[in-house]
Amino acid sequence: MRIEEVTLREIRMKLIAPFQTSNERMEERHIILVEAKTDGVAGWGECVAGDAPFYSPETSGTAWLMLREFVWPMLRGKEFAAAADIADLLDPIRGHNMAKAALESAIWDAEAKQKGVPLAKLLGGTREEISSGVSIGIKDSLDELAAAVRRELAAGYQRIKIKIKPGKELPQVKRLREEFPGTKLMVDANSAYRMEDWRLLKQLEGFYLMMIEQPLGWDDLFSHVELQKMLETPICLDECIHTEEQARAAITLGACKIINIKMGRVGGHTMARRIHDLCQNAGMPVWCGGMLEAGIGRAHNIALSTLPNFTLPGDVTASKRYWHEDIIEPEVTVSSQGTIRVPTGPGIGFEPRLDLIDKLTVRKERLV
């Protein structure tokens, strides 16, 4: 295989409603799309980096620079056997996983199209449908939060995740447990707490949560080891896991009992599969997190979620939860049972809506 050219596009999409985490409020997403022509076939990827460095050191601006100045030049003219080889070719670049994943995932899409198979099958997926949960941002009032949860459960979603931060956790979880006692419920702190908050986090155990996601520092593996010893509730690591080596350390040291795998955060499908396999061999379940993706990123998440150890409902949801119009056809839909059918067409199984993408594009660059 050989990449002939790459086209970068930055699109801007306004969310249906603002999304609030412990450290930022998002109303619009600046999204980089990558189109890679490989042996005459176009594959598509999406960069999940945000506009500001509040989740990750990467941003959409740094990703564009890295793709243009380093990632693409490192692959230009190279011959490789399969998309699975790209991760090792890009290994000399330290970090910048979201930029790497954007191009790497586009090549996976192109290879699956060349072979006439769904991306899920090429990755080794085993499911015809995946389970879907939702992530609900921090709300101004308990009534607003309860109403949001009520809507999502009525739509069929199998698991509810709420964002929390200091002062916005115990009353929220207590209210939801009183109103929705049988619901699968988890919380996500996005690194909002410190080790000295352990007594507060311990109080969450009275509400039988599925997990507490990334309570402590985004790069603080050691403190999560100490905190997990104090909690019966599983800790799930997200921001701490960028590499296979970090995942192995987390498992060996006992820093968590669950890992959230985000393809963009770890550098692409190949690295995501390696972490998946590592966790599966260790008996640790994984699930697929979301980054407010548009349709192309969402499609890649669907394919990844078909791997056998993705045993917990992920954050892959219907397009209409976030966007008035999505950039793929058909849009992603969720059944009344909270499941998403895995596409059976070649590649990601969805067609990019080029007319809408062009309308939303604010900058574009062709790399040859």
Biggest sheet, in brief?
Answer: 7 strands, parallel
What's the CATH C level of the largest domain? Alpha Beta
CATH superfamily of the largest domain: Enolase-like C-terminal domain
Helix content: 25-40%
Strands side by side in the biggest sheet: 5-6-7-8-9-10-11
Average pLDDT rating: 97
Q: Helix and strand succession?
A: EEEHHHHEEHEHEHEHEHEHHEHEEEHE
Count of runs of 4 or more consecutive helical residues? 13
Distance between the termini: 16 Å
Approximately how much beta-strand content do the residues carry? Answer: 15-25%
Structural domain tally: 2
Can you tell me the residue ranges where pLDDT is under 50 for at least 5 consecutive residues?
A: none
How many beta strands in the DSSP annotation? 15
CATH architecture verdict of the largest domain: Alpha-Beta Barrel
